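Quick review question:
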């Protein structure tokens, strides 16, 4: 899988530093050990942060700034990394989706990055390109229906958009039959060390909870 950063993204965010993981996985409905780890993590997280203090997290702040540069309101179309963190700090439980999705959400909370988790077998072609959503561009957000991605960073395969920081596309959604994962950590803060650390953390979680060898990490 090749990951291409378009010129329109480079112009607005020259420091972009992402990391991608391609791995074989075995997905399950639920993993009690993973949820025990998530519970302990959230308890400590709520002691350290508040909904006000997380606004200054570089990963969250930079993603919000990128939305503004592309022409999108980050408060109306909140990036998933920020949305997950806010949900946690407000005392709400995370949604239980499936083991692979749940562990990606844990990593997103831990690092504040919006992470795209995709079923690799549903991606068309072997190249993903990061660009900016266009007016009227069709996009079906997971659990959201049609999503207006104009002015939003978007990863596209040869058929069109499949991942934004706000929501991934129904077309490449992870389900219980997913065996090939493509996971992208979007680092608009330019911190390559942190995006790669986040990717390594996802690798570790995949090894522990998804019968995976952890796959390969690629810098983007």
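Suggested answer, residue by residue:
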């Amino acid at each position: 899988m090749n990951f291409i950063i378009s010129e329109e993204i480079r112009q607005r965010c020259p420091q972009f530093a992402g990391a991608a993981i391609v791995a074989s996985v075995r997905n399950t409905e639920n993993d009690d050990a993973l949820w025990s780890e998530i519970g302990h993590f959230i308890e400590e997280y709520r002691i350290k942060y508040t909904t006000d203090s997380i606004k200054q997290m570089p990963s969250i702040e930079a993603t919000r700034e990128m939305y503004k540069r592309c022409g999108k309101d980050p408060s109306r179309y909140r990036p998933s990394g920020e949305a997950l963190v806010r949900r946690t700090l407000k005392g709400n439980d995370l949604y239980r989706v499936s083991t692979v999705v749940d562990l990606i959400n844990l990593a997103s909370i831990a690092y504040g990055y919006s992470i795209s988790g995709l079923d690799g077998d549903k991606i068309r072609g072997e190249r993903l390109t990061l660009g900016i959503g266009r007016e009227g561009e069709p996009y079906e957000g997971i659990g959201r229906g049609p999503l207006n991605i104009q002015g939003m960073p978007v990863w596209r395969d040869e058929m069109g958009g499949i991942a934004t920081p706000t929501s991934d596309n129904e077309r490449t959604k992870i389900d219980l039959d997913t065996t090939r994962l493509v996971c992208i950590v979007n680092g608009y803060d330019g911190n390559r060390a942190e995006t790669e650390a986040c990717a390594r953390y996802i690798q570790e979680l995949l090894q522990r909870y998804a019968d995976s060898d952890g796959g390969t990490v690629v810098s983007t």
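Why it works: The chain has one domain: 2-219. DSSP finds six helices and ten strands in the chain.
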